[in-house]
Amino acid sequence: MGAEIVIQTENLTKVYKRLFKAGKKALDNLTISVPKGAVYGFLGPNGAGKTTTIKILMDLIKSTGGTAYVLGKPSYDVEIKERIGFLPDSPAFSPQLTAYEFLNICGKLLKIPSAERGPRIEMVLETVKMAPHMREKIGSFSRGMLQRIGVAQAILNQPDLLILDEPLLGLDPYGRQEFKQIILTQQARGASVFFSSHILSDVEEICDHVAILNKGKLLCAGRLNKLLGASGFTAIIPPNNDEVLKELITMAAKTSRKEDGAWILTFPADDEIRGKVDAVVSKSSDKINVTAAYEKLEDFFFRTLKEDNKQ
Fold first, then answer.
1. Could you list the residue range(s) of the whole structural domain that residue 286 is in?
2. What is the pLDDT of residue 22?
3. Taking the model in full, what pTM does it have?
């Protein structure tokens, strides 16, 4: 496993044994590589094998076959744990502890020096917008507040790798926006992030790599911009350029208008149409931006699952 890969699985398989019944295969020869510094979205419907994979990576369960390496070491290696920030899908907290007390215990387990622990706790609580509630008991928190505390403990040790199982669950739109900023901040300081989510619009916004699973099998994986192939192209027509708009609008598959009056025309992936658009644009005195339009992750996700389910 190279130094530029933070998670590597090869033919990872997990079969859950059942009494008097055939075992259920939750993972089927999963092979993925997560590059260092990536924000990697791990996607799939319920039961696809996402949580099973994360539990194997965290050595909470053992695989039936294959291998899993994390930060260059086998996933069961204890030494790597202090370099990982982890948030499970259903985190449980002692309701009698305050947010500060809980994070202080986490800090002790992480061997953060006592002189550094207090300022670090205050910093992460500020980061997740929970500083005003640090002295309140966790038992009084809403689901969204609990999720924020979970994220706080995951970033407390300033990890090299964040592994998060459904971190957006329970967060309102403001909370999701704040979480996305936290992820990008962690990436900017050099951390790699691997997380599962069902909120595809948020994944598309912050992830540079994704993998899609279905029924324990990997359907596709790679850079997001490579997977979402160009589905056509768009042209932005400046306000009051009625001549160009009139020539192009009849060829457009979709139109919309911006607040400043400019028109956004979307065209299908057709070489003949592209040639006609380029010819019109080249004659215009206005600068007209023509760029590739890409398929939405949500459309790609459901199309990929539909094709697999047909087989």
1. 230-294
2. 73
3. 0.81
